[in-house]
TrEMBL record, chain A:
Protein's UniProt name: YlzJ-like protein
Lineage, uppermost ranks: Bacteria, Bacillati, Bacillota, Bacilli, Bacillales
Origin superkingdom: Bacteria
From TrEMBL, chain B:
GO process annotations (BP): proteolysis
GO molecular function term, any single one: peptidase activity
Entry's transmembrane regions: none
Lineage: Bacteria, Bacillati, Bacillota, Bacilli, Bacillales
Keywords of this entry: Hydrolase, Protease
Protein name: ATP-dependent protease ClpP, protease subunit
Highest rank taxon of the organism: Bacteria
Organism per entry: Salipaludibacillus aurantiacus
Any Pfam family hit: CLP_protease
Amino acid sequence: MILYTYQSSHTVFPPEEQDFTSYEMLEIPGGQLMCEKNGEDYIICRLLATDPNMYLNPKYTPGQKFKP
Amino acid sequence: MTYDQEQPQKPPEQDKSGGILDKIQQLGQTNVPQMEASNIHVLTIIGQIEGHMQLPPQNKTTKYEHVIPQLVAAEQNPNIEGLLLILNTVGGDVEAGLALAEMVASMSKPTVTLVLGGGHSIGVPIAVSGSYSFIAESATMTIHPVRLTGLVIGVPQSFEYLDKMQDRVVRFVVNHSAITEEELKDLMLSKGNLTRDIGTNVIGAEAVEKGLIKEVGGLGQAIKKLNELIDENKKDEPEEVVQ
């Protein structure tokens, strides 16, 4: 299919609801973790914190499982 | 004994070895040496600056509802003496970007901004909002007029609104950097720099030349400058009376 339209791709292909619900923000001391929900587990996608030391903490390494 | 006969005995063994394996893994984990709490905090402004519209999660975004509380925390926490902002952004929501820029500009603590990779569009006001600004030699900043995506209802009103919005961006950048309004508007509206579009793409030293950014540099220089600013800030503060 080739589309030729002035509309943005977002309008033509709106994002699915599920894309949003599979991600969750979890509160941790000193910041937040953006996690992808994988069944019962959470997989860390991104650490949101201003403390640079927190990024050295292996507990918050992206890609790891996280238990809230 | 054949392999098949051995099979039923395997599960308990696996469990046992699994337990040992876990223990070995736990023992083998390296501990990061505990560092002293850092007096400098870092804020990364990466990807799109997300405003009122939530972008699909595959987009890398900086959400203002995340950043604003972090800025408030950094301002309030007495252990944090300086803030380093690292930018690599393609721009995004004008109001959200301006909100962040205003928040950073109004902080009482020294802030240093460092543009790495790109600080485009609404990244420009954020890049100039700090007490001091750096740009990496290879980093670029695209300066172009504010525009809208999607359906536009009421064209004259929208145009006026956009024009005012652009004025707000221009005013902020002019007030917080060494560039003049004429120069910035020239960059914003010049033709031929971006294929079939108006605007200019300034790279590293060029941004410094135009007065947008104060210095070309990287992480080392940025941290050094921030420490200098922290020391200056400490001198200005009246010393606490020791009783």
